[in-house]
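Could you help me review a protein record that somebody else here produced? My question to you is simply how this chain folds and whether the tokens agree. Thanks in advance; the entry in question is below:
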Amino acid sequence: MGREIEERRRVRVEFPVTPEQVLLVLLAVAAGFFAVSLVLGLRRQPTGFEESTLLRYLSLDRDHSLPTWFSASVLLGAAVLALAASTGAGSRRRLWWVLSAFLLVMSADEVVQAHQQLGDRIHDAYDTHGLLYFAFGLPGAVIVVAAVVAFAPLVRRLEPTTRRVFVAGAAVYVLGALLIEAVNGAVSDSIGQSNNWYVLGTNVEELCEMVGACLVVYALTRQVSGSTPG
């Protein structure tokens, strides 16, 4: 009964496009960035040509590149959508606020790369190698566990399709940000970064993060647009 009352009170936002159209556009942009970045990165390795302007601005492995700003913008959009979802959410609105703040911090971190700086400090302090060469995986895993515990009550209350998409998006994001990055760190530690394996790993890692963020936006768009039943 309480859930039905919350569903009736929930404010639904009308968009000029459907959530599916939003997802398709976001995925198309992500796929485009991935394809261009991968081609430019692989081309650079065997020829050794100097880094071009295109590579600097379109590579997924460069800070302050267009893909970085795209990822930050997608996460910022997710933060805004989570805040919108809190309207009329009753007892769950504070959890939506926390989720919005969490996504906002993730968006800002895409630009300032604080997680990378923290990982570098841990690496320098403990001389990590192998799968922990990129050492942010250690605090990153703690953050993931804390997020699962904190947001599980909120996610469980989502409509089934929206919940599955949200969980899938979060899982794909973590797959790239922690697991693939760990493998890529081992590659970097073993044979360096001037090789095709590292280029491929980096691009796949960033693609997973972009796709995961896009799926989260899709789920949240469904939530606030009334595409969920109830």
Q: What stands out?
A: DSSP finds nine helices and no strands in the chain. The longest helix spans residues 160-191. Residues 12-225 form one domain. Residues 1-9 have pLDDT under 50 and may be disordered.
